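G., the chain you wanted modeled:
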Amino acid sequence: MIGYRTKKEILFIKAGGCLEKIILDNLENLNDVFKEYFTFVENSGFEQTITEKYSKKIINIFNISPSILNKIRIENNIQTRGVYLKDAKEIVLNVNYIIACLKMNFIDKSIATVEYLTLLLHEIIHCIQQEYIRNNSNFKKDILFLSEMFRFYSCNDIKLQPLFPDEINANLLSVLFINQLIKLLEKENLSRYCEKQLIYYLTLGLINNESINSQLKYLYKHLLNVDYEEKFDSFNQNEKIIYGVTKSDLTMEKIFESYRTQKLCLDIKMKGGKR
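Predicted structure as tokens:
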């Protein structure tokens, strides 16, 4: 069984703890485990059994309730890179693409490690989202909860998946988290790679249609033919990016400029936010 949650932590979440803060609070706790895993991969290569062992260590640090997650496994025959199976309470990861890229020298061991940890954190964040939805009543919970409705009405159209609120949230928070860990580990050689990953996820689903500002409003109109009225004035620009709602014209300009130059043109950070 993976993880448990203390009474104090449960009270924090039920009091309306910020999702980003729940994730960010584990940054320093993960520093040693990540450093150990980086060293292992650099010295011994990307080994599946050991990778699975480190994955369980990382998950346990997040103390996710067993009613949300109690198993992780690597299964290289699935059709996706990773998935959180809510009903089965498990994370399933596919590392074949990482192993193949390593064998063909498309990436080195350090980038392989970043790719894997980002993938793992993405699925962990989906678990944390479920716990957050269960224990909170606020706009962020409401936005994340809409993802299931959008999946249903989209008939799992893979082209729309990057626009779903829970995917935007998991994509960006996982990359931001890894980026901050890379800085803590002082691995400057990986900073540029992480920056490009962040730019990719900032523009994913937007760059092909510059008329999209709010992914949320677009999905309501495209799938339900509803003109959705947003009421998220209390969100700062970072929160509007991370939850896929209407951003300022300046923020959108900086997002598209980041894509054109492949240099990050806006200051996006994962902060604790408001409780």
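Residues 7-261 form one domain.

Shout if anything looks off.
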